[in-house]
Amino acid sequence: MAAQWTSYQPGPYANEHIRITPTKLADGRDFFYMDDDPAYVSGSKTRELKDPRPLDYRFAPHMDADGHELPYAAPMMRRDPLTGDWIPMATARMNRPITAGPGATATGNPLAARKPGDPYQDGEVPDSDYDVVIFENRFPSMVQVPGQSGEPTLVDGNPLWEQKPAAGRCEVICFDPDEQGLPADLPVSRLRTVVEAWAFRTAEISQMEGIEQIFPFENHGQEIGVSLAHPHGQVYCYPFIPPKMEQELRQSHAYHERTGGNLLKDIMEGELAAGERVVMRNASWIAYVPAAARWPLEVHVAPVRDLLTLDQLNDQERWDLAQMYSALLKRGNAFFDTGDGRGMDLPYIAAWHQAPVRDPRRANYRLNLQFFSFRRSPNKIKYLAGSESGMAAWVSDTTPELIAQRFHELGAVDIG
């Protein structure tokens, strides 16, 4: 299986138990089936590769209401002169379907498997079933347009405002075909396939020209702003170092220059020494509430071994991560007591912070997952008001020790 990939090297488990089948959607976007069903892994059953939709080529020009041809509206990005941050601007995302929440604009689910005879036939999956699938986002915030110049230009001709194409990449990973399912309810074996998907895409996309940071993440819950209620995540691939990562790289590099140590490793070892805020551990991973947690529910997950990126995980680390991620999601759902003993479907963001692709400061970084929710009680959320949004000066509504204490009530620290 590895021969067709640029950089991805499956381990023993993936070689035997996961099959990746690439194809193209009707408009030219990349699509991958990641099967863990033995019938598909063996090849005794095969997936539908042809997308039957009559879609135009994704980068084709289109006609406006007056019949004039307009070029593809490629996402652009402008640099904020006050902060130095790049801000992608993607107007096409205004037209994306929304099927969750009061602002829903579509009744079908584009992440669902195809349903023959269903009136909604604009789904992204050609087959009528799947295990895990990965595909380029139809409404991307960033995309590499063939033949487009990457040279910067100036807004209004003013050197204060530099702009250039947002030439990154955005992908979607669907974790399971069950439209009503929750990631927390998936078996560990399926989450193991999701972990393999993160590693696969990290390895392959890191070889693409112009990509500086690969960010797999999961948004879950209507309160987070999720527009499609389906167990899925995304991979954003930035043509720049995003601001949060820039801060972390700056801090970790300065720490190394000052002490010779690795900041993220020393944080993990400090939390282990303190003990109070460690909420889970197994042979390969440590989960802890950071001593300076911002969110009312926040857990960081770090590998025991020094690793830079997800594709560096070995087989055991991938299995142990699937186990810990499953336990973290289940305990997250049980964190707030709603009075019936069943907890709640927790809105959360699970954000993978891994070393940048090319930045030389990557050597002093370390892979970590930052999991958080802005729910602060069963019926309240934390709003990012004046101090947080206006000055990025955080005010916490709780303490890390109280967060950890609640996790300790939900289950043992040692999980395997």
From TrEMBL:
EC number: 2.7.7.12
Requisite cofactors: Zn(2+)
EC top class, as a word: transferase
Annotated family: Belongs to the galactose-1-phosphate uridylyltransferase type 1 family.
Keywords: Carbohydrate metabolism, Galactose metabolism, Metal-binding, Nucleotidyltransferase, Transferase, Zinc
One record GO biological process: galactose catabolic process via UDP-galactose, Leloir pathway
Galactose-1-phosphate uridyl transferase C-terminal domain segment(s): 249-360
Full protein name: Galactose-1-phosphate uridylyltransferase
Domain Galactose-1-phosphate uridyl transferase N-terminal: 75-242
GO CC annotation terms, alphabetical: cytoplasm
A molecular function (GO) term: UDP-glucose:hexose-1-phosphate uridylyltransferase activity
Domain of life: Bacteria
Active site: H232
A Pfam family the protein falls into: GalP_UDP_tr_C
